[in-house]
Design a protein that fits this description.
This protein is α+β, with helices and mostly antiparallel strands. Helix content is about 25%, strand content about 25%. It binds zinc ion.
Length: about 130
């Protein structure tokens, strides 16, 4: 299930974020399903020509910012699941643009976006979110 299925007050959520995160998040002009991407301008995992997934440290431990924000809304995401950026904007941390999926599903979706729905993997798995 996508986070947009939950009632999230994005403004309220944003305000509740640590200040050191807020200064790094810029609301993009790019809208997905009517909401702007929350683009992270800071440390990232370097993928996609340096526009990779947002990273930061919490108590000395490296974490993905988009995943941490999603978990603030939806609760802990088990390690075997990954976050799919439905907006296809890797630095985006807007939980309404994210969905929890299996690694296999994420690979399938990436392939489907590149190669069409009949790409490398043809199976979609239900996940408990
Ligand atoms: Zn986005």
């Amino acid at each position: 299930m996508a986070a947009d299925g939950m009632s999230i007050d994005l403004d309220e959520l944003f305000e509740s974020l640590p200040n050191r995160w807020k200064v790094r998040i810029k609301f993009s002009a790019h809208l997905f399903e009517g909401f702007p991407c929350w683009e992270w301008h800071g440390w990232n995992d370097g993928k996609d020509n340096g526009r990779g997934h947002a990273k930061t440290k919490i108590q000395g431990k490296a974490v993905y910012v988009h995943r941490a924000i999603y978990e603030m809304v939806a609760g802990d995401v088990p390690a075997e699941y990954v976050m799919d950026h439905r907006c296809e904007n890797m630095p985006c941390c807007n939980p309404k643009h994210l969905e929890v999926v299996t690694v296999r599903e994420n690979t399938y979706r990436g392939g489907a976006r590149l190669f069409g729905p009949n790409g490398a993997y043809g199976e979609s798995e239900e996940v408990p979110f």
